[in-house]
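We append the chain.
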Amino acid sequence: MTALVSRRIFWNIPVIFLIFAVLVLAGVLIYVSIKIRREYALLDQMLDSAIEGTFQEKNFDELMLSRLESKMYQFLSSSSLGRKSIEEEKEKVEELIANISHQTKTPITTIRLYAGLLEEKELQEEEKLLVKRIEEQNDRMAFLIENLVKMSRLENGIVSVHPVNQDIAVLMDNLTGIFEKSGDHRIFFDPGFREQETVQVCCDLRWTVEAISNIIENAQKYTDQNGSIVITVIPYHSFTAVQIKDTGIGIAEEEQASVFSRFYRSEKVNDKKGVGLGLYLAREIISKQGGYISLQSEEGKGSCFRVFLPERSGKKAE
């Protein structure tokens, strides 16, 4: 009998140890869980205070949490300094651009004035040609400075686009008004856009007009007087495109990827006016509004640009 009891106790020892081990493991898991929750709550508080800009170190020992607080404090401090430095640099750039724009207006206007006074004189043909060249180069300089200022302001975020819902007819009316006044009889606006008065796109009207105008002016430059430039509105799913199709000199396939680059000028058009910024600015403006520009062209057979503008959003035009 005694032997039987001893044998039962012997066989129950592993069970007792197993139960003890399970209880210890459960206790450890509960402890770890509580610790993790506590540290998670502290991390959550740290992040909240970091977002609010009120983060301060509270633990000053060698624990992991203290080291984490220290690193986060250093990170936020450096981020704050970096942001302040960027803002200061942006202010300097804005001031520099404003100074360039202001300081160059007077000499450009003066040169234009003196060239005009020279034209009123009795000049020989060669002298008249020289005066004309002065005026051309002065206009080129004014155009270059104006576009450099626009480019810098866009790239540095000094000027930003603010897309809102616009009737496509309003956009097209703005473009029609600009180019009808130019007296260029090569330009035709497809009146079909008036049948789409209810179509709305999300864009910044002023900047979008400028972007599309750059493309139309580019078409004017490379289309001879016997050619034509047709502007059409084409609705697509989620986008509406303004198409500018010309019968000009076209663009070689190997150059099509480069025409939207800054200051890109093909060697084949060096005799034409321009600085290579018009298409670049157009792409920058449209892309900042969630749109894009496509190009189809064949050398000697004209070009077709499509400016895709996203359809209406929740923002309304004021």
About this structure: The domain at 164-310 is CATH 3.30.565.10 (Heat Shock Protein 90).
